[in-house]
Records
---
Amino acid sequence: MTFSAKPTHNNSTQSNSTQSNSTQSNPQQIECLNQRRGRIISNTGGWFPGKGVFSHGYNMLEELVGEKTYFQILILNATGKLVDKPLADWIEAIYGCLSWPDPRIWCNQIGALAGTVRTSVVAATTIGALAADSRSYGPYTLLDGVNFIQSAFKQHQQGMSAVEIVAEITDANRGKPYIVGYIRPIAKGDERLETMERVGKKLGFSEGKHVTLAYEIEKVLMEKFDEGMNINGYMSAFLSDQGFTAEEVYRMYAVMVASGVTACYVDTFNQPANSFLPLRCDDLDYQGAAARAVPL
């Protein structure tokens, strides 16, 4: 779909000189830009007054709104795939496992701080969601989680056992089982797995090949390191069994912490202003230069 706009012109010598240099250095790129000049090209969809709003070939107001759930539409927009309702319900359910209203959680603290200084709920929620896009936790870790279990599954198909897969990783990390999707820094185990297993059975899902391997890897880790699988490992394996790529999973869960951030914002917004986690000067462990007189 193409949307046209009247192009703007810049007649400055510097602009023309820059364009000339760029053309000489990369004419193919300039040709591509010229073809798109003043036009917005969308491969996803758009709104056509009098005709409808479209997403990946579906008429949203006729085929999606009221006919499909919000999470079916969310997944469609993120991946281009219109999945069946049971799978969308599973993906929705796990959102509830990933967004807790606990202000001690890093991204939720941002929401709580935003509430105590009276920002808008939109600012609080979006900033908190952005803070969760971390290599340590949050949606970004799903890239590594999915890539790991899919790579491990390929190795397993080629004859490697779960023991050998774990050994290869621990040998590369000086005996440490650093695997995204396994081990939990604060607590042993992950109570959310049992809940999502129950949800999966209720929705009619059976254990797939990636999930089976994920549990075999967990068994090895439990025996050797007393560490188990966490929710990242489980959902990475489950969604791999459903045919999603790592990038698709990352996109589907881009705002997975948003609800918990909003809850923490509302909590502190309804309390006295500037009262969340106040500190006195003597609460700080200052280790800098000693107090000294300031010359007049």
Note: The longest strand covers residues 45-48.
---
Amino acid sequence: MTRIERSATNQRASRRHFLRGAGVALALPWMESLPSFAAEGSKTASKAASKPPLRFACIYFSNGVEPVHWWAKGSGASMEIGPALKPMEPFREDIIFIRGLYNRKALESTSPHLGRMANLLSGETVSLDPSVIRVGTSFDQILAQEIGGQTPVRSLVLGIEPNELRLEDGLSMIYGSCLSWTSPSKPAAKEIYPSRTFDLLVGDGTGRQLDRSILDEVLEDTKALQPKISRNDRLKLDEYLESVRSIEKRIDQASKEQRLEGWKPSLSKPNMPRPDDKLPQNVPEHMKLMLDLIVLAFQMDKTRIATLMLNNDLSQMNFNFLEGVQGALHLDLTHNGKAPALEAMYLKTNQFHVQQFAYLLERMKAIDEGGTSLLDNSMLMLCSSLFDGDAHSADQLPILLAGRGGGLKPGRVLDYLDKGDDNRRACSLYLTLMDKMGVHLERFGDTDKRLTEI
């Protein structure tokens, strides 16, 4: 008899299937041949339980874009896109290019960076009093508070660079390090370690490090399950377990190579000259791992809400791993005085960030959830807190939406620049996305209006 169980820890949670081992519970992806465990006698509940859930993720990159390269026009497969969006070419029918939305409080701030980044997902005022940390609660964390109890992990808050504790222009760099805020004065804890994120998703729920492979622990249940499911679901299960194994191996290899886990000092004082500015980690691999973990979390239904900061605001990330980008940090490339050589490298960093989003779309589009893909059942957003990074402009924001979750209609360009002021608030977009996730607020940030075209 198989030991597959379903979760009953939260009455609001949809019932999930697990493979179990010694102290380990691995949630299974949605499969058509497993019963839905809806409330007995309820046709509505049965239909809802058999439908994959809606997910939301926000991928953030810092320091804005080069405006001349960030544009789109047309629709569908014939949509024309600017050079910065080149990685989106295979996904033009999966995205909505949004032009012209902005946050009023960010635009009004006298702090060109920290007053315009921490409030990206809240639209509230960033306190410029050095003694007071205050922003608005970000809408991803409102979602986490309202519907996060339906999953074991309320939300994933991920990043690549650690929180910075230094001051910038007299203000705490916590404003530049945190996209998600659980309250106006408290940022959500950001996880930058792939291994700890992995343990949180596939371990015992406490984030403890596993001594053995999670798949080794649940092997008995896996063998018992395979004869009981359809051929298509067996293929889906094999792909899913291979994905888990792949992430395990990559985290293990990165640990052996002393990558991705951060620098651990063994001396109280340096015994060598200052190293050069190269990062002590493989940035593309780190980003890819975090994106894979978001996919895994959504596929396992461990969470339905995620944010990932590809870099901090005022980022010191060195992009010399990109061909043709040398001798400059990200902040220098984006604040370039329109120097042609630096602008060319700035374009490459924009393309790299968009490429990470394209990778996420590709992964999610390939995962079947019973006739629809994981991407079809998600709403994904790529954004930055500035438009023209060199000019610190906040009169509009670079935003891409992707997926078909919540009734999104991709393959379009939505241009709000020519509309009235009240029709182009980013918080109107956030109200609309929250509505689709089942969280309804009368007002959020600087508006009470929705974007009906979304």
Note: The first strand starts at residue 5 and ends at 6.
---
Amino acid sequence: MFEILKKQGQIQNIALSEIFPNRFQPRRVFDENELFALGESIRENGLVQPISVRRIKGGFELIAGERRLRACKLIGREKIEAIVYDIGDEESAVWALIENLQRSDLSPFEEAEAMAKLISAWNVSSEEAAKRLGIASSTLSNKLRILKLEPEVRRVLIENNLTERHARELLRIPEGKERLFAAKFIAEKELNVPETVRYIDRLLEQKKPKRKPPKFVVKDLRLFINTFEHAVEVMNSAGLCAVSTVSENEENIIYSVTVPKEKAFRKTKSPAG
């Protein structure tokens, strides 16, 4: 197949030194072991699929095939088979982003960043971008939300292969040191998503301010005086002959209740000797 495409002028052997990386490449992390394995496969079997490039000033810009290009560099290849396309900046960016989104080994943050760049490149709303990508608008929104996490938190999640769900749960914690501490704890304890949900629930519960008992504000002293008067009435109905008086001086209002001792204490006869 390569020979046929070469004869048609669709494939060229291009020096690796002439190929520049794509500015819109979403992938930031490449597994060195996987690249070495891919390089050995290319050494043994040749390149199964050519990379895609476009002409730019001073050489070529990669469109798709970053892993293949890196693997060829690792095994010391000087040239690589490439299909050369005549396309502009926007089309090249979209192509590179979509090609990477169709792979399953992007980190959640690489995927989210690629989608954000696509929205910008297409110059459309997130709803329209979701339609073009074939996903629900809510799914796209959830993926983009994790970009609010701080770089330090992202690093912990990526290094420990934690998921998008882990990332979204961390967004429930207000930004700051608590969020980074939680990310490290989740990674260290290898918590799954349900365990992470329960852990963050406990953290948030601890941070809730304790409810203080409501303060009763006295707006009218007459409310209390009425209560006292009612108490006096009850005492009198029991035969205590209580008398209430109210007086005041420069600083205080004085409310007093007087009960005769002979009424307050019932005398009892001593038992017969």
Note: Residues 107-148 form one domain.
---
Amino acid sequence: MVKIEPPGEGDPLRGWRRMRNGVSLWWQVQSRNKKSVTCDLRRPEGQEIVRRLARGSDIVIENFRPGALEKWNLGWDALSRENPKLILVRISGYGQSGPYRERPGFAAIAEAEAGLRYVTGFPDRPPVRPNLSIGDTLASLHGALGALLALHHLKNGGAGQVIDVALYESVFNCMESLLPEYDAQGYVRERTGSTLPGIAPSNLYPCKDGSYVLIAGNADSLYRRLMTAIGREDLRDDPALAKNEGRAAQMQRIDDAIAAWTSGLSLEEVLEAMRKAEVPAGKIYTAADIAADPHYAARGMIVQTVAGDGEPLRQPGIVPKLSATPGAIRAAAPKLGEHTDEVLGGLGYGAAQISELRKSGIV
């Protein structure tokens, strides 16, 4: 994958969050396996470089505000004219059409306007955000899904096409029954802290060592095993609690019983009891917990690498895991413009031309 970056400054992600040797640690993960080419898209010579790249590419991904590529003579019409099989993935805040199309959009705004922020947190406090840019990740996944569908269409004799991904739509697509519940019953889903009303029991429960355990015994058989494990046969055998509908109506009663049991045990004692009862349960992992977890290691999800700054760095492994063509970390995140000469040379630019483009500030 070739990543186009503005000369001199590069992608803003290079300077975000925690740094090491002047480079973001986030960048080291996000940009592995990519080649960095600097190119000024505002100038005709830079636009020509992109057109040459697009001629030989299967997929082009862009995340500018709608109309930016067209302003630079790099819109769908221009690129597909030279490569009819091209797939153009366009990621923006509000999509390529509609009354909001020209508004700037970030993941934080998308999460708010798609309803995610409103339902996140505790009911007596303002809405909160996950400590992640989850809207960006969801948009990327939807873009990848669209690109795969478009590749399948090509394989079956179709032409290239545009994949229009909006940040707010990608988040909204994950909001489950939020809209149908409102449309059918006027119900507005609210913040509920660590619980999920309507599904019981599934909650965080305190342990005697000050930690919390997550227990999800919300299937009928799981609920029975859970109640047996905590010594509450009365709740296990209560006909009113046999099905989720009845348990949902008495969530507090069930949660109080579970919390009373977990409060007398350490986290590890609770987890061991839940493992024996075959009830899903887990601790709330920190980064330190993940780094030390043997299952993460066994699944190849903690990979020791040498980062782009030349120092060792453990990174997340590649998912999903394919049996015949598994992914791998083949190259560290690139330095700014590290592959400009290599890529431009492959497009037919000579050394003298590349030197002139660099002197002119185009690459």
Note: The CA atoms of residues 345 and 351 lie 7 Å apart.
